[in-house]
Each structure stands twice: as C-alpha cells, then as structure tokens.
Write a structure and sequence with these properties.
GO terms for molecular function: ATP binding; DNA binding. By secondary structure, the chain is of the alpha/beta class. The chain contains 13 helices and 18 strands. The structure holds adenosine-5'-triphosphate.
C-alpha cells in the first residue's frame, strides 16, 4: 500500500508518524447498533407519552389484577375525562383537546408534506450527501389554527422561516402563517386555517369595574379577548378611510365609560374633522372641541400644563400615577391627528400644538396622561412624533410601506399585512405592543349609534362636564 507516493513500510523513515489501526470486532458493532436502536425506541416512547404512558399503566394493571384491573382503570379515566370536560371545558380543550387534535393534524397534514415544504422553502440542508430537515417537536391545534414547535438546523434563524411563511402557508393550505422565535434554536410556526375575525363583533359588553391594565377591545385571531393595557402608554391608531378607526376609539371610550362615571377617568376629546365622529359622545367628555383651532390648541396646552403640575406633585412620591376620582387618568383623544399637525393652515397654532403634544407624549405616561390619536396618513411629516407612541394599531392601510411606518421596522416581514386587509373587514388590525416585536391580528368591537347613545345615557357623569381646575384649586 502507498501513502503520498511512499510505501507504508517506509513512512517512519520519511518522518510521517502513523498509528496502528484498531479494528472494532463485529460483536461490538452489532451491540452498538442495538443500543442505538434501543435508545431511539425509548425516545420514541417518551415522545408519545400520551399514548405509551397509559398503555404501560394498563399493562401493569393487567399483570396485577387481570382484566378487572384495566377495566376499572378505563372506566375511572372515562368518568374523570367527562367530569373535567363538563366542569372546565376551556382547560380541557387546552390540555387534552389541543394535544389530541395536534397529533391528528401532524399525522394527516404536516408529516406528509413537511419534506417537500422544507425543500421548496429552501429550509432543508444537504451535508455529506445526507439531507437534514428542521424537526417538528410538537403540535398543538385549535379549530382555528395549528401551532408547530420546530427545532432549527444549525445556521438557520427564525427570520429565515418568517421570510418563507407565505410559501409554507400555501403548502399547508392556511390563510396565514407566522413564524416567531420561542427560545434560541426553536421557532413557533402558526398556521391559521379558519378566520374567527371574519364575522363582525358588534359592541362588546361593558365591564362594571374595568381594569386599566387589561381593557377588552376586541378579539384576537386565536378567538380570545384582545386586552390592551392603558396605563403607562400612548396609543396610535392608523388606518385608511373606512378602515374602522372610529370603532377602535369608540370601543375604548365604551370600555372606559364606567370609570368616567366613577370620576377616575376623564376624556378630553378633539375631533378636528368638524365633530362628525365624536359629537355623539359629548355627555361623556370632560372637555370637547371640534371646530375652533385656537380652542383645540388651548385644550392640548392645558393638558400639558396639568401634566407638568401633576409631575411636580408626584415627584418623589410615586413613579406611576394611580387614577382616583379626585385625581383621574386623563385621556386626550384626537380623531385625525394630521388635521392638527399637518393640515392646519395657521403655522403658529400648528407649532403650539406640536409642542404641547410632544410634551404629553414624552412625559405624560407616568403622571397619568394618555394620548390616543387616530391618523389616516402615518408619514413622518404628517405625524412627526409617531415613535413616541408605545402602542400602535394599524388597520387597513393603502400602501405596504406604511405598515413599517406605523408598526415599526420589520413588522410587515413578521406578518402584519395591513395593506392586504380586505375592505370587507373593517375593524381588523395588527397591533404591536411595546414589549413584543410580533404583531397580533385582532378585530375590534363595533359600537353602532344605538350602542353609543346607550353608553352616554348610562354612564355620563350626572354633574356634566366638570370645570377644569388647576392643581391648587383642585386641592382646595
Ligand atoms: N370593528 C368593526 N366591525 C364591523 N364593521 C365596522 C367596524 N369598524 C367599522 N366598521 C364599518 O366600517 C364603516 C367605516 O368605519 P369608520 O367610520 O370607523 O372608519 P374610519 O376609519 O373612522 O373612516 P374615516 O377616516 O373615513 O372616518 C362603519 O360605518 C362600519 O359600517
């Protein structure tokens, strides 16, 4: 035998060091193969613990008590399952239903098409002539969607999956697919097969004692209530004409109505479009302006002054204001912000408005001043301080570029397709909350005129809009 042109016997002479080859005996190779197969079988058993665990228990019971053993166990288990289902259907669906349905969908849908889907999406890796596929670790399903937990191959990122989410949804026949990182090396793919947001919601029921950290405004794509935290934030609502901005604002006003009646929330409302939208709610509003630009400016400046006075009062006492009837959360609500920041012809008023809004947005969160603003056109020259809104809601938008303007960089790549929301689905939006980069798809409740009139009747403070006092007057 020759190595690099030398005879093997001469290698030591030319300075190459060789090792003696050790040949593994056949019995040891066979033992190794057996151990590996056994290990794989055990892993397979553990992964299917939902089936193999109970089967093992039944087998043990049979060994100990013969047939009566497993029969008694099965009867007990069936009774337990029925009782659980009847007593706590939600937890039953989450713990048992989602797993069983997930296993079923894995078998009939995902296993079959996983390889072609990964190859088509260029997510399969070939190394040393061997093909590797990202591994499905588990599947949980509801009647609306399937959630797949997938182990990434080395070198892959969740963004790679997000980029081909559109390809994947076509393979698996879903109307939408999202990919998000669960933890390093693991991505969650969600395939939505039925859309719970297709049907309009109508006005949501009003909670007697609303929690400002969890205000219900609509439903999410997973058919659960959409809850928004209103303490310590500002909310920007963007959408084309007819996209449903009004339904977001009215859902919010209705949800806050009991606190308005209680006095722990005050609504200061500006409708620069002449009052077509917000006039109906006047009895609920502590301050309201819709035509006079000077008066709208003064309202905003007054809010900024009160905010600064409250900041001085709370300085060193607390870091987050707690709303009470004497010291309410002040919600400054502006329908069509662009009318104040861009379309107003009087430049001086525009500058005063921008100054007051900048103050409220940059300093108002901690002392309990919340700005909620709606806008049709989210461009920076129209809404110069859009980055100061931690909570952004994007309804249907006219152009794809507007999505990232409203929801932040990369939001569209992460699945917020606001420009593709059909006109037939007003009130459908993508929401980005400050602590989560992944947008949530929701539909807001739609309070019609009757619901708004009823809200005013039930919750308007009896004393009418309160005079605005400065902090010293209020203390007195
Ligand atoms: N959440 C919703 N669910 C069902 N239908 C809705 C919803 N929101 C709005 N709509 C329907 O869409 C219509 C337009 O909605 P809305 O007036 O709120 O849009 P907008 O974005 O405020 O438009 P504009 O900027 O022109 O005022 C409503 O009259 C209503 O019929």
């Amino acid at each position: 035998m020759k190595v690099n042109g030398y005879r093997a016997d001469d290698l030591a002479r030319v300075g190459l060091i060789t090792r003696e080859r050790w040949v593994m005996p056949l019995w040891m190779s066979i033992l190794g193969v057996c151990f590996r197969a056994l290990g794989r079988f055990l892993v397979w058993l553990v992964r299917r613990g939902l089936i193999t665990g109970p089967a093992l228990v039944l087998l043990l019971a049979y060994g100990k008590w013969d047939w009566p053993g497993p029969a008694a166990l099965l009867t007990g288990a069936v009774l337990f399952v029925i009782a659980w289902w009847l007593a706590h259907p939600a937890s039953f669906r989450r713990v048992v239903g989602a797993r069983l349905l997930g296993q079923w969908r894995l078998m009939v849908r995902y296993r079959r098409l996983w390889r072609p889907a990964m190859i088509g999406g260029q997510l399969a890796v070939v190394h040393d002539e061997k093909q590797y596929l990202p591994l499905i670790r588990r599947v949980r399903s509801t009647r609306w969607a399937d959630e797949l937990r997938v182990r990434l191959l080395y070198g892959q990122t969740p963004e790679r999956f997000a980029l081909v989410a559109e390809n994947l949804r076509h393979v698996f026949g879903a109307y939408r697919c999202t990919a998000r990182e669960l933890k390093p090396g693991v991505v969650t793919l969600r395939f939505y097969h039925r859309d719970p947001l297709e049907q309009p919601l109508g006005p949501l029921p009003i909670v007697d004692v609303p929690d400002l950290r969890r205000v219900e405004l609509g439903r999410t794509e997973d058919a659960v209530p959409f809850l928004l935290a209103l303490l310590g934030t500002h909310v920007l609502v963007a959408g084309a004409s007819g996209a449903g901005k009004g339904s977001v604002l009215w859902s919010l006003i209705r949800a806050l109505a009991p606190l308005v009646a209680h006095g722990s929330v005050e609504l200061w409302v500006i409708d620069p479009k002449g009052g077509m939208e917000m006039t109906f709610g006047k009895p609920l509003f502590a301050r309201y302006e819709d035509t006079d630009a000077e008066a709208m400016t003064e309202l905003l400046e007054e809010a900024a002054d009160r905010m600064q006075a409250r900041t001085q009062r709370l300085k060193g006492v607390t870091r987050q204001h707690t709303p009470t009837p004497g010291d309410p959360l002040i919600v400054v609500l502006v329908d069509e912000l662009a009318a104040l920041t861009a379309y107003l012809s009087d430049r001086k008023l525009r500058d005063r408005i921008k100054a007051a809004l900048s103050l409220l947005l940059s300093q108002g969160r901690a002392p309990g001043f919340l700005v909620v603003a709606a806008v049709q056109d989210p461009r920076k020259d129209v809404v110069p301080f859009r980055d100061l809104f931690p909570t952004r809601i994007a309804l249907r938008l006219t152009e794809a570029e507007q999505v990232d303007m409203v929801l932040g960089d990369g939001a569209r790549d992460r699945g917020a397709l606001c420009d593709r929301i059909p006109r037939a689905l007003p009130g459908v939006a993508y929401v980005r909350l400050d602590d989560d980069p992944d947008p949530v798809r929701v539909r807001f409740g739609y309070p019609d005129d009757d619901a708004i009139a009823e809200t005013c009747q039930l919750y308007a403070p009896h004393f009418g809009p309160r005079p605005i006092l400065n902090d010293e007057q209020e203390a007195a």
